[in-house]
Structures are given as structure tokens and as C-alpha cells.
Amino acid sequence: MSSQFDIIHKDAAGRIGKLTTPHGVVETPTVMPVINPNIQTIKPSEMRELGAEILITNSYIIYRKDELRKKALEDGLHALLDFDGPIMTDSGSFQLSVYGEVEITNEMIIDFQQKIGTDIGVPLDIPTHPDVSYDKAKEDMDITIGRLKQAKELVNGDMLLAGPVQGAIYKDLREQCARELSDVGFDVYPFGAVVPLMESYRFADLVDVIASAKKGLDPTAPVHLFGAGHPMMFSLAVALGCDLFDSAAYALYAKDRRYITSRGTYHVDQLRYLPCSCPVCVDHTAEELKKAHNCTELLARHNLYVTFEEVREVKQAIWEGNLLELVEQRCRSHPRMLEALKQMYTYSPWLEECDPSSKSTFFYCGPESSRRPEVLRFGRQLERFTVKGSVLISSHPTKKNSEYEHIMLFKPPFGPYPQELTEVYPFNAEVVRNPDYESLETAYQNTIRLVELNPEATFTFFMKETLNHPLVERLRKMDNFNIVAQGSD
Ligand code: GUN
Ligand code: ZN
């Protein structure tokens, strides 16, 4: 079976998609709860009502244990877990990265995954630690690519095959790896070995890894961010084009008595209040939760509820076209996330290519919004815009009069645009009344560009005091540009 991934809605590089698997269709973005075949805090059969559409487990753990292997081979993976929806299985690569070796080969684990009826199988890739040397990363990557090609030859049923993209933190390697795998053709592309980056809060590096790997892939291919399960970073990763996530975090954090929220994590013993309305948090006070004999299970349930709540929040944001506003909010929960936001907008030219050209009202959420793809796009469109004669640039709507042939409105972070377009996206943006330095910077750069591109026009700018910025001096020096000072309002 060849994979089918239909994209039904887009925002930035994010999308709502439908991935067809042998056990049904999954709507993405979504999170696959990790099921430990040995110990289950929450039964797989209960996962659907908590919001899960697809699960992930580890075929190597099943393979290694006689009792599990026997049952999986006889009755199938879905019977073993008692879940009839789609199940992805990992290969033991993670164990390889932690323990240095595993007792199976790539061929054996691919064969086993097919025999037990996995929906999405994973070859034995090498998760290369982010900080190894370039040469080591390249060497591992080449071995991984070889194994993935071999796996592709071995698949003969309807199992979908994942092709993990490796390459440590080397952007060219990630892109090259993605491109080579793309040429072979896999059904899902996990981005691998990012767990150490997330554990050490290196979210800006994570942005580089995702953006580089995405560049090497067909934009319509489904992407899985391996080992990413904290809801705080979903919106960011989705905006960069990730579709699937997996969460062991819900259970691992619960074991550590940690309570997940979309803003970060609390230790349950620090909680005086429960800031959530899931069934667990409605039924318990903070004190009751701390003392409950089944505290781990309750925390795991809460952690999953908030995980899927964030998935729905992200999907709704894509649907409405305000995913970047959500990303900007979420990235304010931690300084390292704020770095990641800034890093994401260094990829605005690429995001702009993916972004639908019209969507819901642009909300200015802070200085970073000045670097959004929509603003960049406006800057580009100026190149195609010509004006002649006398042009008034004002921050207030102005009646047409005989003195000026054109009236343009000045709105940071965009700059001047034709007044007739006020109600049109993106100029209908909701912006702050006292523009910050960054939004003025962008708006004036665009103004300078407009004036340079239209030497035959003469511009008059009604400038309020609140719009001052060092770039105004550059405008003042331009021959066809006059500034008329206006008081503040
Ligand atoms: N789980 C977390 N990271 C990885 C990875 O890079 N490869 C595989 N197969 N599993 C993972
Ligand atoms: Zn809760």
C-alpha cells in the first residue's frame, strides 16, 4: 500500500492532513501516545476516549520478550495491545542510541514488524547524538540511508514504512538526508535524534533541524517529530511543518510526579491549585491529587488530556489561520522558546512560500511579528507596485482631495499601502497603537524601498511624533520625500 496523505487546510508551513493507514485514517497534526508493552499506566483501549487516533509502541521490546513475541506473532499487534486503530512501531533504534547495541538486525526487525501487522514500521536507523563531529554524523547518516533502502526492498505487504531523517545538527546533512530519502520514497518521514535537543531546551537548534530537513522533502510528505511530546512546543513544530508527534512524556512525567500544561511543567507538590478542567482536575483538589494512591495514573491521564487539548487548539488555529499568533504566545512561556521563535522567523522566506496568501486577521503580538511571512510578502509585493504623481502617506484615513493623486496609509509593521485596501487582508491587521521599534524599522524599510522604486512620484508623509525612528532621517534626505510633522493624537 502506498501512503496517502491529503492536506485539507494550511497555515504557515503547518497543515491539517489525513493520513491513510491499514487500520484507518488519522487526522493530523496529532500525538501518538507511547505504549510500553510491559507496563501500562493507561490501557491502550482507553486511549481513544482521551483523544488518541493512533498509538506507537516498540517492536524491539515485544521481540525481546518471549511471551510478548509469541502472542504478537500469533494474534497480531492489535490484539496484543487490544487496540483496533492504527499503530506505529519503533525499531529498537532508541535502545541502540542509549545502550550502544541491540540484539537484532535491520532485516529481522522489519520482518518482525510486518509479521505482527504494524501499520507504520520503522527501520533500524542510527539516532546520532546532536554534538558528534560532522564526519561521524555523515558516516552514521550514510549507514542509516543504506538500511532504509534495504528496508524499502523488504516491505512487501501493506505496512507503511517510515524513513527517519538523521544528520545531527548539521543543516546540510539534514537536508541532504531528507533529499536522498525522498528520492527513495517513504510513507512518513520522522526527524530523528532530536530528544537530546529538547531535553536541554535547545529549541532554536531544533528549529534549524526541522527547517533544514523540511527543505529536502516534498512539502506534501507527512513528517513525524520523533520523541516530541511536550504540548508547549507543538504549535512551533506544527508551524514548521511537522504532522505527527509521540508522547512518552505523559507517562514518564507522571512517574516523576510532574503535571504538564501548555505553558510548561509543574511538580505536583508545588501545586496549590489545579489550573485545568479535565475530569481528573475537576474531580480532585491539588491536595487530593498529591495524596491519591493512584497519583501516577491520575497525572498520566491529566497529562494526556492537556496534550490533546493542545492538539485541538493547534488544529483550530490552522483552521482559522492564526497559527502564528498561537506560536508567538506559546513561545513566550520560556526564554529558550522565545529564541526558537526568533529562529523560526529567520526562515520567513520559506514560510512565506508555504503560507496561504489570504487568511484571518493578522494580530500583532510583539516585536517578533514584524518578521512574519505576511510582512515579508508585503515587502516583496512593493517591487511590483508603481505610483506616479503626488502621493500622500498618512496614518489616518484621509478623504480624497485634489492635492494628492494617491493616498496611502502607513501601518507598521507593513508600511505604506493604498488606502482602498484598508479592509483587505493583511492590511486589516490588528496592531498596537504605539508601534514598537521593530515594527517601525520594517515599515520604514518598506517606505524607503517604495520611494526608491518610484522616482517619478513625490511623497508627502504626515508623520506623528510617535512614529519616530532613526530611519526617518534617511527618508528626510531623499529628494522625492517630504515630511510634515503632526502632533501626537
Ligand atoms: N525515538 C526517538 N528518536 C528516535 C530516532 O532518531 N530514531 C528512532 N527509530 N526512534 C527514535
Ligand atoms: Zn487536568
Commentary on this structure:
Helix content is about 40%, strand content about 20%. With about 500 residues, it is an alpha/beta fold. The strands form five sheets. Strands 6-5-4-11-10-9 form a six-stranded parallel β-sheet. It has a five-stranded mixed β-sheet with strand order 16-15-14-17-18. A three-stranded antiparallel β-sheet has the order 1-2-3. The radius of gyration is 26 Å and the shape is elongated. The mean pLDDT is about 95. Bound molecules: guanine and zinc ion.
What does this entry show, briefly?
The protein has 489 residues and is α/β, with parallel strands linked by helices. Helix content is 42%, strand content 18%.
Q: Keywords for this structure?
A:
489 residues; alpha/beta; 6-stranded parallel sheet; 5-stranded mixed sheet; 21 helices; 18 strands; binds guanine; binds zinc ion
How do the helices and strands line up, and which of them pair or pack?
Layout lengths: L3 E8 L2 E8 L2 E5 L1 E6 L11 H4 L4 E4 H6 L1 H10 L1 H5 L5 E4 L2 H7 L6 H10 L4 E2 L12 H21 L5 E2 L9 H14 L4 E3 L3 H5 L3 H14 L6 E3 L8 H6 L4 E4 L1 H7 L2 E4 L2 E4 L11 H5 L2 H6 L3 H26 L2 H8 L4 H11 L2 H7 L18 H9 L7 E6 L11 E6 L3 E4 L18 H17 L3 E8 L6 H6 L4 E6 L3
Parallel strand pairs: 4-5, 4-11, 5-6, 7-8, 9-10, 10-11, 14-15, 14-17, 17-18
Antiparallel strand pairs: 1-2, 2-3, 12-13, 15-16
Bound molecules: guanine (GUN) and zinc ion.
Proportion of helical residues: 40-55%
Query: Could you tell me how far the N terminus lies from the C terminus, measured between alpha carbons in angstroms?
Result: 65 Å
Overall pLDDT confidence: 96
Largest sheet: 6 strands, parallel
Q: Which ligands appear in the coordinates? A: guanine, zinc ion
Radius of gyration: 26 Å
Low-confidence stretches: none
Which structural class do you get from the secondary structure elements? alpha/beta
Instruction: Give me the number of helical elements.
Output: 21
**Estimated share of beta-strand residues:** 15-25%
Count of DSSP strands:
18
The general outline is elongated
Strands of the largest sheet, in order across it? 6-5-4-11-10-9
